[in-house]
Write a structure and sequence with these properties.
The chain is mainly α and 607 residues long. Helices cover 77% and strands 0% of the residues. The chain contains 34 helices and no strands. The longest helix has 22 residues.
């Protein structure tokens, strides 16, 4: 018999498979297994009584596994005394379970010195629990270098705790040997690394490895790994597989996965099942799911239920609950409680709550109280708050301060802020910088920015080249594209300008369409130009209708046109009335002509 020979694996390393839970009534197969185990135990017991050291060690381990400490101890001590290192390790396990940690460590040391990797692992953990990290590292490294999976993981955990770069190596070793928690933690570490190396091929490769380790851990039943794998797949657009992993994780009791699954179902239009999973997550303390339930009930008009869930979110530590309660109260016109909830969320650092609180105070006339909250929200990263500060300073005539906040909001992608910066740069004569900001705002959907960008480009556009036969050649320019974009978004001045460009091309129908859209939206220039177009086409009565609308809106030339129309019809009094109106409206050239016409009509009436 080999002294301290490697004849048995440690109890905790898996030589003896942990018994699975059984029903009260055994199946025939299970009955057979029990009989086989009993026969094996009897065989080992007879051999142990005959003095077989290996049988003593195996029998002690079997009894230890079953929880029979009193029965296991004499066999393990006898085998240990005979030099069996596996028995020494298992004796350490038994003593540790009895609460004799120091005596257990002594036996683990004997087994570890004899080459037991599992004992080295147990001894390393013992030293770490007592704060002796150098000794813990020594023994855990011994275990890890001998191929002990748990030893590699425990060593990686210790090194990671100390910030040692070697942690990743041993975490990878444990993961490659199938340790699911190591696979998960390796994925988390690589995920953080990928965030730091977001650019370049190396970042992509790291992300691929992250997914691989999450997938390995998830396949072994790690619920948080399944959650993170689902998140990766959802971001990539693989929603069906993402949903499967969320479902796996949620069924294992991960509330964040249940919440994420709820959002996935909601986006697919299945709000009923979404609510089921949100309810499950919220009941397990997930504040985000409670907020989602609150929003769902608020959309249905069930405000009391919505409020209850928002409060549940707040109780779960989710500050969005207080913010959403503020929004709910504000929508109901309950200003005082809305302010209360906004303040609660704002004091907890919720930037959008701080911005909402500032707006509430500003509407109540408390500009002095609003400004600090706008500032706090803006400093915390609220783009809307930065824009609102710009409006606040602009209202006081503090143009430089306003521009500073507009620029900050514009840099973060705020469309209206970019428009304001562009207009300010135009006033300052910095056309290049103005164009840059106007392009950003126009690209973000601002019709006003598209129109102003078009005017900038239009002003620098060279005259249209002439065809060799003297006919103008029309090429669609960029400024026309921006005019049309603004016009299609309902910008009245852009619609008039697009109509003018169409008229210049000879496209009367297109020009009339745009003039009519602008006029019907209230544009007096659109109404006036539509009238001109109709008059040229021989529809003077209809033209007069549009000129009347334009003149009533303050258009002097439209009033002059009406004066001429009525004068030609012989309706001198009506002509004189519109001539008076044209004189009052101007501009100077129109007023001068209208005055001459008015005087002539007056003389004719008095003759």
């Amino acid at each position: 018999m080999d002294v301290m020979g490697d004849k048995a694996t440690l109890f905790e390393t898996g030589r003896f498979v942990q018994p699975s839970s059984r029903e009260d009534t055994d199946t025939p197969d299970e009955t057979g297994e029990i009989a086989d185990e009993a026969a094996e135990e009897l065989r080992q017991r007879l051999a142990a009584e005959a003095g077989d050291v290996e049988a003593m060690s195996v029998l002690g381990a079997m009894l230890l596994r079953r929880g029979d400490l009193d029965g296991a101890e004499p066999h393990l001590r006898a085998a240990t005394a005979a030099g069996d290192r596996a028995a020494a390790n298992n004796l350490g396990v038994l003593l540790h379970q009895r609460g004799y940690a120091d005596e257990a460590a002594g036996w683990w040391r004997i087994a570890a010195v004899a080459g037991s990797a599992a004992a080295a692992h147990a001894l390393g953990r013992h030293h770490r629990e007592r704060g002796d990290e150098p000794a813990a590292e020594y023994w855990l490294r011994q275990a890890a270098e001998q191929g002990h999976t748990l030893g590699a993981y425990a060593l990686a955990d210790l090194l990671e705790h100390r910030g040692d770069a070697g942690a990743e190596k041993w975490m990878r070793v444990a993961a490659e040997r199938g340790h699911r928690e190591a696979a998960y933690r390796l994925a988390r570490a690589l995920d953080r690394k990928a965030a730091r190396e977001a650019d370049g091929d190396s970042g992509v490769q790291v992300l691929d490895e992250v997914e691989q380790w999450y997938r390995q851990a998830a396949a072994r039943g790690h619920r948080r790994a399944a959650l993170h794998l689902g998140t990766i797949l959802e971001k990539r657009g693989e929603l069906k597989e993402a949903g499967r992993w969320y479902l796996t994780s949620a069924k294992d009791g991960e509330p964040r996965a249940a919440c994420a699954l709820g959002f996935l179902l909601r986006d697919a239009g299945d709000t009923e099942n979404a609510a089921v999973w949100w309810l499950r997550a919220a009941q397990d303390g997930d504040g985000n799911a409670a907020n989602a339930l609150g929003a769902l009930h608020a959309e249905r008009g069930e405000t009391q239920t919505a409020e209850r869930w928002y409060r549940a979110a707040m109780d779960a530590g989710d500050v969005n609950g207080a913010y959403n309660l503020g929004l709910l109260c504000a929508e109901q016109g309950r200003t005082a409680p809305a302010e209360q909830w906004y303040r609660r969320a704002a004091y907890a650092g919720h930037r959008e709550a701080a911005n909402a609180l500032a707006i509430l105070l500003l509407r109540a006339g408390d500009e002095k109280g609003a400004e600090p909250w706008f500032s706090k929200a803006a400093e915390a990263g609220s783009v809307d708050a930065a824009f609102n500060l710009g409006i606040l300073h602009a209202g006081r005539g503090e143009e430089r301060a306003a521009l500073r906040w507009y620029e900050r909001a514009a840099a973060a992608g705020h469309t209206e802020a970019a428009l304001q910066v562009g207009m300010a740069r135009l006033r300052d004569g910095d056309e290049q910088e103005a164009e840059r900001h106007l392009r950003c705002a126009a690209g973000g959907g601002s019709a006003e920015a598209a129109y102003r960008l078009a005017t900038v480009l239009d002003a620098r556009r060279p005259p249209e080249p002439a065809h060799e036969l003297g006919e103008p050649v029309h090429r669609r320019s960029e400024c026309e594209e921006w005019y049309e974009r603004a016009a299609s978004q309902g910008h009245r001045r852009a619609q008039v300008r697009v109509g003018m460009l169409a008229a210049a091309r000879g496209d009367v129908a297109e020009a009339a369409r745009w003039y009519r859209e602008a006029a019907e939206a209230g544009s007096r220039n659109g109404a006036f130009n539509l009238g001109l177009l109709l008059a040229r086409e021989g529809s003077e009565p209809e033209a007069a209708v549009w000129w009347t609308r334009a003149a009533d809106a303050g258009h002097g030339r439209a009033a002059l046109r009406l004066a001429l129309v009525y004068a030609r019809r012989g309706e001198l009094a009506e002509g004189q009335r519109w001539a008076d109106r044209a004189v009052a409206l101007g501009p100077a050239s129109v007023a001068e002509r209208a005055a001459r016409l008015r005087d002539a009509l007056r003389q004719e009436l008095s003759a």
